[in-house]
Each structure stands twice: as structure tokens, then as C-alpha cells.
Write a structure and sequence with these properties.
- The structure is a homotetramer.
- Chain A is α/β, with parallel strands linked by helices.
- Chain A is built from twelve helices and 19 strands.
- Chain A folds into two domains: 88 residues, Urease, subunit C, domain 1 (Roll); 320 residues, Metal-dependent hydrolases (TIM Barrel, Alpha-Beta Barrel), CATH 3.20.20.
- Helix content of chain A is 30%, strand content 24%.
- In chain A, the strands form three sheets. In chain A, strands 1, 2, 3, 4, 5, 16, 17, 18 and 19 form a nine-stranded mixed beta sheet that branches.
- In chain A, strand 11, helix 4 and strand 12 form a beta-alpha-beta unit.
- In chain A, helix 7 packs parallel to helix 8 and helix 8 runs parallel beside helix 10.
- The longest helix of chain A has 18 residues.
- Chain A is globular, with a radius of gyration of 21 Å.
- The mean pLDDT of chain A is 97.
- Chains A and B meet through strand 2, strand 3, helix 8, helix 10 and helix 12 of A and strand 2, strand 3, helix 8, helix 10 and helix 12 of B.
Chain lengths: 458, 458, 458, 458
């Protein structure tokens, strides 16, 4: 089975050039100035950019959260991903308290198998750090999971102590894995939530007061300092604020191996949304910030201090789920859909706005997450031997985002009415067209599990 | 004319993969997993890395300096370059006081034409900043020179005032060019030199006292602050010290577009050499530093705060030239040979020592300088359409550097006796083998002038 | 001759306590809980603060500037000073190009002798840095001048090169003196002024564009770095912006001996004034800044990074002098009156507003400038043996500043209509009442010249 | 009862002057150039410095620690203090788990009453942060305790969570108190201790590995960030390292109210002592550091980033106590004697070595701790109305410290054999001579309890 993509402009994290691509058995077989071979299928990409299929290293699919289940499972979410140009998701497999990592991985492989439209890998999200859990890490690495996530916004029984954190970093480093962290200070948040509740400040407009940037910066600095003691790499999932990115910069200036991820919503939405009547639609953690934080995040993207942009896709309905928080924002489940819109949003606010080059776009949404999480060069680039995952991207098209364009099962999109420039025209997974002009052609279950390689500094 | 390179591992700034490369008419025509076409020449690169030909953005060839003429002209230096894997040099064409930029460019094109073994572009080194000079910049950009170099270590008539510097940055930015700077504070150096002379401290062991790191850091900060006022990019040529790199980091943290270049000798040689009986062999500016500076430079390479490594090749004989400084180091001309050893030294001290990945090596010695100076993707990568400049590199070979291995006309090498790991096995320029196992096959004059594109942020 | 001040609250830079003070022959003779001795004069200071007479280390009296002569000479200005609680001024004696330091000192001693109401010392403001000038420094120190001022906002012939600056710092340090600097980058200012002029932007609203904070910060960093090379102390006169104070903090964090002075107008006036129809009244250099800079200056006062507040008194008439700049701000002479209002303004915006303690007020307006400039403990404190210069200060009184309350000869005050809390009730110079409730009792000529001691770190 | 001190040079944190002091009823009654009144006692202080009695804000007397009882109770320790010029100690009253603050205060008042030679105040050291404890703070403030100490080097049940810390800061601020912290990360220390034990690394030479500077810096940053959220002042007790002081500087640069205390042993002893056969004599927490840390601490003293020097006096015998740790350093109780040597050590290594002025000495060992902990101006200065606590100090005398000169009951001194310049000649407490040439004249029980005033920024 061969496919020939002709006349496109290939863009990787480094290169931009005009060439044809021949795909054979799902892999890039040949790249040439003009390939005249016979192929089963020929796609004319004239005027299009040919980008590596995007890698979304931050999704939460088919998961219980805050007492509710997300509306998107692997089938619906990866269909949305495919439409948006994302051909790989790295989902958070959740270890339940008392459970094993192996159990988490097995459960998540079941959730994905037979359902996922795109390829997938896993982080394992730890609910606790025990000797048993740490002991399982090498086996998980052998099984293809090389990133382990912990949350610093827990408290009480969910609180992770610094000694545990140190051992987690050391165990991960020893096994060839990397630790990912959600960095907000849970103990302070608990205190703030208690006060807001006691003062009757339960409207979503008070969400930013429960989780201010200082709380994020503090936990970010804490995590970085422990990683430094362990001489271990660290990946900060979901950096939202200038305060937190300042800590990342300071560590990188010292030469520490620190990676930071932000999300499209931190770049294009602001905390003003919480003043809206339906502001609860926008609850996420960390919360949205005032607009000047986005300026700082863009600068950090330019300077190379932010490496990856993940969607943090965690979709809920407004009716019956998010709107439970109308009177009390803590009752709304956290998060919203975004896996589909990620690439277009970053292109529009980044490349089209003159902030970053197309190569940097590829780096942020494909190459860097693939490298950091051990999927490169199978994913994240277009080179001979790589999986033939591609976005034939039209940088000039303009789209108005809306529920009508959204393929998530969620009954709303936080980007309703937003105009973006640039969208996938066609999306290929291992050489097969899985989406075209926002219609999904791929089928549930065709996605494959991607074992991750051990971490090494790119 | 076609050439087929088979079975190598292609390494670019981003990618590492096994593939064959078909070259046609001097350009990469096709890259494929297994190319079975008939070619005029077939090279088996089994076990070799296939790197883009290296780009040395910092050479001084066939030039008068400190009252003497360098021993290498374009013929001898580019032969040495070719042997070492460098297929492009960007040389400094010097505008003489009272002369024009056009005159400098014309003179340098004459020096190179018919002599250069490898391809070449030019920076123009300004000896003064006048309205006339600034007015010529757009024409130079149109003629293919998009980088203009100024020195901050001049004094008296050679002193460049901040107003002039501001206008230089603004003129360059307006014309699509970038300003390069040698950043040491000339006025302070003049003072220190005067003192050392009056105290009879003229042995080369006092060179570091004439040009301490503080003097470099001060000028670096000065240049960066003026570039910031002009909202212009800046390229710092020849950063040698922790003090200076700290200023670079601070500016990049603020989001400023600052590029820093260091040289191999700052990474592998130290100021202890000035204590040697023949210490004057090692005079260069900035001077060599104590070893801890190299540690900081490597960290800055890792963090992405140093972008480019240039040789600063400026070759002299020890006998009759450098040794004139035995009694008085200021009588020794500055600089030494290095264009040939650059790639191997960075591989050995960087990749083989576990400090950087092979991709980062390519970035530092090829891709980034090519991008910053408008030669990419013709140079700096291996992609369809790029010039077929390649190093078939053997990462495992071990070489002892010596005058015997050096192709510079200089009667010594500063790296005498140093063992390095990794060396070019074969070097191709536009598809033709120009060097093989340290023997040059290319002929003088086959190198072409490379007009540079306007600067844009990569 | 004895005077007894009873029942006041004595406040020094360190202490606050209730006591009586006995003055004999102009000096503090005794401080006691209840002094019952017979005195020639007894003053009941019940309910008043007894502060050391204030020291204004930044005045420009009876001087030509921008082609005009200030309206205040030593008589009028020091009368205003006395009314405002300032019993010592340190004025800038100006060395004229080609002239000597001795000549400057002689001329200024003549200007002051027989005219000054308060005591006085001198800085010498250098117009150039030559070997001859540097050679005079030790003699000037012997003559009681231990601070030498240079401007970094000159250009062309007035430009001071870094080598000269280094030698100035070293000469001063060697002689026991300190260098004061006006830190703005003259060369950049010249460029900006030229552009504004060519664009017809000559209204005073464009003054901030000619001298933006970046220009101040750049020169501040430059001066600090040269002082560091010289291992010499440095006093930055007239810091106005957050950008500049950031450079001061960085140097102090490294352990460098750096002192910063700001002025009351930078704390209570803002650049919005330049939008006023009579905005030219407010021209000064550096210019007034947007209000957030004042917040940063107050924080630097709290953290101990600003040490001294001087008035920069340089008075002109609006009619016939400042208003010459109505069409072209560069034709307005720089500066305005302020020696009288300084203490009250800092008390009102500082102590009364809860930002600083009364002790810190004394430190800023008396003790620190007296210490840095070698007048302590004769001036700057109330201790046995100190000159009996005192402000009997009423912290509770409220005053509306206006031309009617101003004793400067200037036909306006920049503080017109401003309400302040706290004012001197009575002011004593060497035990004699020289002002009372804004009326001057002292006579011209009673002020004495104060030879300064050599600099030492307090 | 009156005492007249004649002919001394009075030195406060600000002033230096020659004067006589008349003491009446234990307080400074009068300061005059020449006081000729009749007094019960006349002391001729010709050639001596008259310093305010020193305030040691960090002692641990008569307390159980690590399962042992300190060898010094209030009687022996305050005798040693008196001999060394310290006339006020602020001791840590320890709240026991489950106990009340009132109980701690009562118990410590009992320990001190009838025994203390010098005056005393208390911090209360919290063993836990509960609503009950926080609720007691206002009553303690009313009872004269305005500083509350917490340890961040606890773990398990002794671990203080950030939410608790936030509430502690807020409660203290609300009540007019300040929080003091021992800042080392207990959880990491526990981990390191466990590893060292398992590796058999129990010799005291491994102590620095259990508590490295990173562990101190991390906890310091943690505490500062939570204080910032609470907008509360913070006092860091026992800063030992460059790493930690860097965090203090950063916070002070932001304008935060942060005070740092170090101890003489961090300035004059180094971690090399742990290599000694009797290295266990020097165990303390944080531990001694390599010598370059002391250089950084001195710079921070100069720049005003360290405010106070306390002894951390916590005395044990070598025989039978410290030597229990010979095989396992964790079995040695922490700390050693130092209350007696503090003033002389800081004078010798600071003033006599040219690092600080005599005024700054007074600031560090008397004025600042008195101000921060609400005892000023009763203590910490020599002003009319202040307690007549004085050191008649001989700056020129030279002393060799040894067990023979030490008045602690401990069977050794960590300063054995060290030569110091400067020592108290005579020490007065409220006008009475309590020590003379290292002999104690004061009697147990003459010291008084000093209620502290509420905290306000000096």
C-alpha cells in the first residue's frame, strides 16, 4: 500500500522545503523533489503545508474526575483530535489509591483499544508515592511508559511530601523515565477554598482567588528544587502564569533540565471569562489568567523556555455537569474540550500573528513532546522511516470555531465564536486519510499503542 | 551527475534516521529508505553519520591584522575547512577606514574567487559607523550580505559611540540585516594595557589582566541594551566567559532576540596556556579563560543560550609572527588556526563526552549559523533541495591533533597533542567528494559565493 | 550662649526618645531626661519631634545652566532651605572646561560666603576628566571636598570615556573620595533629540521620549560596572526609574558599595504633568516618570537600596525662562525649586502615608547624606558634640504648598496646590533659631563652610 | 543610685561620639560632653568604646533536646552572656506537643526567674500549628511575647503544612507578632539520613551530606513565599549558606519584609572541622559550611540583607553528650556554647578585619534584634531613657579563647585556641557592673523579664 503526497511544502521543527513524500506501509519511504513513482493513492498538496501529525501530550479521556465522568472517551476525543491534526495523544492513565501502576496501564490500554482513532501512549498519573509504586516504575518503562505524573495540589492523604518527591524523581531518573508535575500548592488552595466558602464567595468569579499565580509559582519552584537535588529532568504540565514561568527560567539559567508545557487556553482565553454569566464553562486548573500572562508565556515560547503545548482536553457538558458549579464553582468538574482546536489555535495566535515561525509551531505541538516522551522519530517529524502521520495544512483558511465545528461530545466549546486562521485540510495517519476538512474518515480502533523509549536529553 | 550515499545515519538539527540520499546536480534530490536507482557514484556510508556540511560563521582569511598578514588565504584555509567537514565559511570582509562597504565586498569577493575550495558568504566588518556607511546597508543586503560586524574594543578614532550603535542596529533591522559584535570594552583595555606596559608586565601571562571577563561582560551588556532600544536582533561573536553569558541569559529571559557564539578554543583550552614558555601561541581575543568558564559555556549550550560555535580562524606562524610577542604580548598578532578542527573538537568535548546530542552538534556548527545568516535551507541541513554538502562522519575514530594533521599553513596548531574522538571520514560539497580522511580532493576555486537572505527569527 | 530645648521627642536615624537638649556654643552639650539648668533661651518643644537639621546633598545654586542663570543664589535658596528644615546644603561647584578644581572651589566659596543662611559643603562637578583634573583630587580632599561628580549624559567633547571613568573612580578612591554620577546615556539622548526635532515633536509632552528609563538604566549599569572594576564606591545622583533601580539592586546583591539618591519630585509628581498646558514648568532631568515608577522607588527605599533623597534644587522663573520651552522643550532650562519642600514632602508621602518610619525619614534626608559625604557626626544626627542643627517638627500640621508659601525667588512652585502633612515648626542652626513657621530669622552669611572628611563605608 | 561613665566613646547603630553618661535608677539619665555631677559611682572609660549592652536573640537554655538536657541553665548561660557583653537574651520557650503557649511561657518564666543574671525575653517555639495554638497568639502578645518560631525541618507528625504556615503568618501579623523560622527541609533530611545510615555513613564527616545548602535554600524559599502570600514579616533564624541568602536577597529586592539572622560560628568556623577526630563537637543545625559561604554571608551583612547575629547557644558536654555521636552523629545533641563569645567574634572578624564599621556591629548584635523583637529603645541603644546596659569595650585587646576563658558549664568551647581582637572590659546592666574582665559580678536572679512590644517595621 503506497501513497504519494505531491507538491506540498514540508515543514519540520527545523526544515522548510518543497518536496513529494512517498508513503509505503504506513511509513515515510521516500522524500524527493519530484517523485514519479506509481502509488495506490496520490494526493496533490499544492499550496499546502505538510506538517508532522501533531502530538498532544496532555489529554484526559474517559476518566472520572470530581465525581463525574468526562463526556469524551477515546473514540470521540480521538476523532476530534484527528480532525484537528493530532495523530497521537498521550493520555493520563490514572493509578487509583491502593492500586498498581500495572493496573492503571492495563485499564487504560483497555479503554483505548478498539476505540482510539489515533495512535496513543500513556503517562501514568500517580495518586500516591509509595515504595510499591516506585518499585513498579522499571517494569512500566519496560512496558513502554516512561513518564509519571504527580500532583502537588493535593492535601491531606493526597499530599506528597518532599522526601517522596525526591524518591520519585530519583526512581524515575534511574529507570530512564521523566516526572511530570501539576504544580499548584494544594495546602494553600485548601485554605483559600475554605475562606471563600465561609465568606459565601462561591461564584466562579472567585475561582482565581482560590488558585492565584503565587500558588502556582510556589509549587513550581518547589518541584524544580527537588528535581535539582535528584539531578533529574522535570516536565511541568500546564504552566499558566508569568509567576511560574519565572521559576522555570531561573532554573534553566542554572543549566537544569526543565521542560514547561502550557495550553492553548492560557494563550487565547483570559480570566475575564469568569465574569460571564456562564463563566463556569471555563473552569480549569490552573485557572485562566489576566491577559498579560499570555504575553509573558509567548515570550517564554520565543526564548525556548516553554517547550510543549498540550490541550489538557478534559471534556464535560455544560448542562448537567459544568453548570452544577453555577452557585458553587467547586462543584463544577475541572477542564473542557480542546484536543481538536490546539493546532489551529497555536498557528493562528502564534504563526499568523507573527510571534513564531512555522518550524517552531511544529516543535511545540509535535517534535518536542514526541522527543521528551520517547516517541521520536516515529512521531514528531517527517523523515524517512517515521510514521506517515501528516497534516496537510492550509495556513490561509479562516475558520470560526463553534459547537457546530466541534467534534467533542461536549455540548459547548470554550472557543465559541473565535476566528482562527489556518486549519488542517487533510490529516493522514500512517499514510491513510483519517480526516478531511473537519470530517473524520478514520475509524475507532485503528489507533495503535505507542511504547515510549527511555528519556534522554534531546 | 548523480551520487548516491547509501546506508548512513542522517542527522540534522532535529532528526536522526537511517536512509539513503540521492544527489543530483549538486542538490539533495531524494531521501529514501532504500534507493536503488543508478547513480554516477555510489558511496557506502554504513556505520557513518551523515551530517550536513558544517558552516563556520567566523573566519578571518587573507587579512592584515596587527600589522601582519594571516598565513592562510582562501585557498589554504578552505582546504583545511574541507578536511574538517566545513563546507561553508562566512568570512569577515573588512571595510577600511574611509572606504565603502561595496569596496569591502568587492575586495573580498576577489580574494575568494578562484581560490576557495568551499562555498562562502560574507559579513562586512565595519571600521566606522558613518551616515555613508549606514546608507550603504540596503545595497549590501541586496547584494547578499545581511550581517554587519562592529567592534567595541576600539578606542580613540575607532571608538563607536552609543548613538552610532543605535543607528547601526536600526539601519540593519530596517534593511533585514543583523548586527554582530565583538564585545570587549576598548577604553578599559587601553587603560589596562598602558598600566601593564608601564609596570613592565608585557609577558603573555599578563594578557588575561588586560582583557578580564568583566571587560567582556560590560561591553556585552552595553551592546544588548542598545539593541533592545532599537528592537533589533543581535549576534555576539566570540563569547568566552561566564560573566558575558550571564548578560546574554538575562536578556533572553526578558524575551530579547539575542544570539551568542563561542569558539572551540574557549571550550577546550584554558588560560593556563599563557604560563607556557610558548604561551604566546595562544593569544586571541577575548583571551582564554580559567577552566570553570568552559563549564558555564557548556551549560549555556545546553540551555539554548549559546547558538553557534565558530572557529575564529585567524592563522599566523609562530616563527616570525606570534613569537614577536615573546617579550611583549601586544606585538603578537591575535588569533590562530582552527577552521579544520572545529567540528571534531565540538563532537569530542560535547557529544562524545555526553554533554550534547548529535542533533545539537549539527545545530551549533551548521543549522543555527546557516539560519541566522540567511543561508538556510540551502546550507545547514539535509533536506530535499538543499545543497548536497555532507560530512560522512565517523563518531568512533580517535585522532591525535598535531601540526602533522593540520592543513593550515601555520607552522603550529594550538591543539597539538590533543586526542579527539570523532572525525570526518569523507566530505562532500554539492555532491562531490572534496575531502577524504583528512586529504583534500577539492580544488581551489570550486567554492561559490552564497548570497544571504534577509534575517528572520528562526 | 546656651539654649535649652525641652520636652521634645528626639528622633535620629536609629533612636526615638523623649529628652531635653542643652545647646552650648552651637553644639549639643547635653541630652537629659529633664535638664533643669539655666539657659539663655528655653524652647518648649512639647508635642514636637526634634529632628537633626536636614542635609540636602543635591542643590544647584547661583549657576548658569542651559544659557540662563538660576533665579536662586545662596541667599534666597538657603533661606528657603532654612524654612523647610534644611540646615546644610551640599552644592555642586562647577569646574568649567579648561578650568581647575581649585578654581571651581574658590569661585563657589565666594558665591556662598557672606550669603548663605545655612551651612554648606561642596561637590565638585567635573566638566572633563583629564590627568590635570585627576591630579588635583588629593588637594581638593585636603581642602574639604571629597565628592566629585561627573555626567554621563554628555556627548561629543563632553563625552566621558570608560577609561576616563575608570581613572576617575580609582583616583577618587585613592584619595578618600567618592564619585557621584548623573547617569543617562548622552549619546542616545542626542540621537532621540535629533529625531524628535526633525519630526517637529518639540512640545514638552515629548520630553519623556528623549530620555526614557532605558537610557537611564543603561548609563546606571555602565557606571556601576566601571566602579566595580575600580573597587570604588559610587553614588548615583537622581535615580528616577524602576529600570535604573533594578541595576542598583543587582550590584548591591553582589556586595558592591553603591548608593542611590532620588528626589522628592520623582516620588510625588508624574510624567502626566507634561501634558498640562504649562507642562514645561516640570522639565527636569531625568524627567518625571509614570506613577508606577514611584511605587518601585518606595520599595527600594524600604529595602535599603535607596539611601538619600536630595532636592536637585535648580530654580528658574516660568516667565522668561521655563516658558521659552513652550514651543521647544529643549529651550527651557532644566530643573525647578525644591529645597524648601523636601523634608515635608518625604514626611507626608513617606511617614504619614505609612511607608517608612520617622527614623528612616531622618536617615534619608539627614544621616545618610551626612555620612556618605563626610559631614557626620557634625551633621546628620543629634548627639553630644554634634552641631545643634534641629528641626522642631510638627508631624500633624497640614499645609497646602503654593507660591505663597515658597521662599524661592522662582515665580512658581511645581508643588502648587499640593496638601502635605507635617512641617517644621522651628528650625535651629547651631543653636540659633533661623526659621519659625515658614518665616526665616537667619541672616545671609551666617552659614559656614563644612570641610568634608574622607569617605569611609558607614 | 547614680553612676557616671566618663570619657568613653559612645557607639550606637548610628552615632559615634565622645561623651559622659549619667545613669540614674538603672536608666540613661543624661548624656553630656562633660558631666560634673556627683554620682554614687564613677567609672573612667577613657580609651574604651561604650556600646549598648548586646542583645542575643537566639539562645536555648535549660532545655531538653535530642533526649538530653543542655548543660547551661539560665544561671550559667547568662553569667557567660554577661561576661561577653550580652545583657539581654531572648530565649526559645518551647511549647510541647499538646501543650499550650501559655504553659510554655509560664514554664520558661519559671526557669528564668531567680536565675537569670541578665534581662530576658522569649520567643515561643511551636511544636505544632493548630487552631488552638493560633488562637492563643493574641494573649501571648498581650503577655509580652511577639515572636513565634516554627521549624521546617520536622517530618511526619512534626511536619508543618503550607496551609498551617500561611495561617501562622496571618495570625501573627494580625496580632502584631512576627514569625521566626528554622528553614531546612525536614522531609529531604529524613531521606538523606536514612540513606547515610543504610550506607554506614554515620561519622560526623557525613553530617553536611544530610543537611546540604540546597535543603536550607529550599525551605527558605518556601517560607518566604508563604510569608509573601500572607503579607507578613518573616525572620529567618540561623541562615548558614550562600544558597539560602540568595533567596533572602531576591525577596528583599521585591520589597518583601524579610529579616535574616546568622550566627558567629557560620562566620568563623567551617565544615572542615567535621574531619577532626573530635569533629562531633561542632555539630549544629544547619551544619557548618565550606569557607566560601562565610564570604557571601559577610557580603550580605554589608549590603544589609543580614540583620542580626545570634549565638544559637545550646550547650552540651563533649564527654557523655556530644561524644555519644562519635560513631553515629545523629546521636550527638545539636549545638554548642557561644553566648559569651558572640560580640568579640563579630568585632574581631568584622570590625577589626575591616569588613564592617563599629556602628554596624552594634546594629547586628544589639539594635536590630532589639527593634525586630520589640525591645527597642529600652534595649539596643544608648539614649536618654534607655536601660543603662553597656559594654565598656576595649577594641584593641587580644584574647585567646579557650575552655579556661569560657564560663559556660560545657566542658569545651568550639572556639578553643582562636585569637580574637576586642573584648568587653566592663559590662553594666541597668547601671550596675555585672562583669569585669571576664569575671561575673552580677548575681543570679537580678535579670528581669522584658515584655516585647508589637512588631512594626523599623
Amino acid at each position: 500500500m503506497t501513497t504519494l503526497i505531491k507538491n506540498g511544502t514540508i515543514i519540520t521543527a527545523t526544515d522548510t522545503y518543497r518536496a513529494d513524500i512517498l508513503v509505503k506501509n504506513g511509513r515515510v519511504c521516500e522524500i524527493g523533489g519530484e517523485i514519479s513513482k506509481i502509488a495506490n493513492e496520490i494526493i496533490d498538496a499544492t499550496g499546502k503545508w505538510v506538517l508532522p501529525g501533531a502530538v498532544d501530550a496532555h489529554t484526559h479521556l474517559d476518566v472520572e474526575c470530581d465525581g463525574m465522568t468526562t463526556v469524551d472517551d477515546f473514540e470521540s476525543a480521538t476523532a476530534a483530535a484527528a480532525a484537528g491534526g493530532t495523530t497521537t495523544v498521550i493520555d493520563y492513565a490514572e493509578q487509583v489509591p491502593g492500586g498498581t501502576l500495572a493496573g492503571a496501564l492495563e485499564k487504560w490500554r483497555e479503554k483505548a483499544a478498539g476505540r482510539s482513532v489515533v495512535d496513543y501512549g500513556f503517562h501514568i498519573a500517580l495518586s500516591e508515592v509509595t515504595p510499591g509504586i516506585l518499585g513498579e516504575i522499571p517494569a512500566m518503562v519496560a512496558a513502554g511508559v516512561t513518564s509519571f505524573h504527580a500532583r502537588l495540589d493535593g492535601w491531606g492523604e493526597r499530599y506528597i511530601h518532599d522526601g517522596q518527591l525526591l524518591e520519585l524523581f530519583e526512581s524515575a531518573r534511574g529507570a530512564g523515565a521523566i516526572v511530570c508535575l501539576h504544580a499548584e500548592n494544594g495546602d494553600i488552595i485548601r485554605t483559600y477554598l475554605g475562606r471563600l466558602a465561609s465568606e459565601g464567595k462561591t461564584s466562579v468569579r472567585y475561582l482565581p482567588e482560590a488558585r492565584p499565580p503565587e500558588v502556582e509559582a510556589q509549587a513550581t519552584a518547589r518541584a524544580i528544587s527537588i528535581a535539582e537535588m535528584a539531578r533529574a529532568p522535570i516536565y511541568l504540565s500546564g504552566i499558566s502564569s508569568a509567576h511560574a514561568i519565572e521559576k522555570v527560567k531561573a532554573a534553566r539559567d542554572r543549566g537544569q533540565v526543565v521542560y514547561a508545557e502550557t495550553s492553548p487556553h492560557f494563550l487565547v482565553l483570559t480570566s475575564e471569562r469568569y465574569e460571564d454569566p456562564d463563566g463556569v464553562k471555563y473552569t480549569c486548573i490552573p485557572p485562566l489568567r489576566p491577559s498579560w500572562h499570555a504575553d509573558v508565556l509567548w515570550k517564554a515560547i520565543s526564548s525556548g523556555d516553554i517547550h510543549s503545548i498540550g490541550s489538557d482536553h478534559r471534556a464535560f457538558h455544560y448542562a448537567g455537569q459544568k453548570d452544577l458549579g453555577k452557585e458553587d464553582f467547586t462543584r463544577a468538574p475541572r477542564g473542557f474540550a480542546g484536543v481538536q482546536e490546539r493546532v489551529s489555535l497555536v498557528h493562528s495566535a502564534g504563526v499568523a500573528a507573527g510571534r513564531i515561525s512555522p518550524n517552531r509551531l511544529v516543535d511545540l505541538v509535535s517534535a518536542s513532546p514526541a522527543k521528551i516522551f520517547g516517541l521520536f522519530p516515529r512521531k514528531g517529524t517527517l523523515a524517512v522511516g517515521s510514521d506517515a502521520d501528516m497534516i496537510l495544512f492550509d495556513p490561509a483558511t479562516e475558520v470560526t470555531l463553534s459547537k457546530a465545528t466541534s467534534l467533542s461530545r461536549s455540548d459547548y466549546t470554550p472557543y465559541e465564536g473565535m476566528n482562527v486562521r489556518g486549519a488542517p485540510w487533510m490529516v493522514l495517519q500512517r499514510g491513510k486519510v483519517i480526516a478531511r476538512e473537519n470530517k473524520v474518515h478514520g475509524r475507532a480502533g485503528q489507533g495503535e499503542f505507542l511504547p515510549a523509549a527511555r528519556f534522554s536529553v534531546p
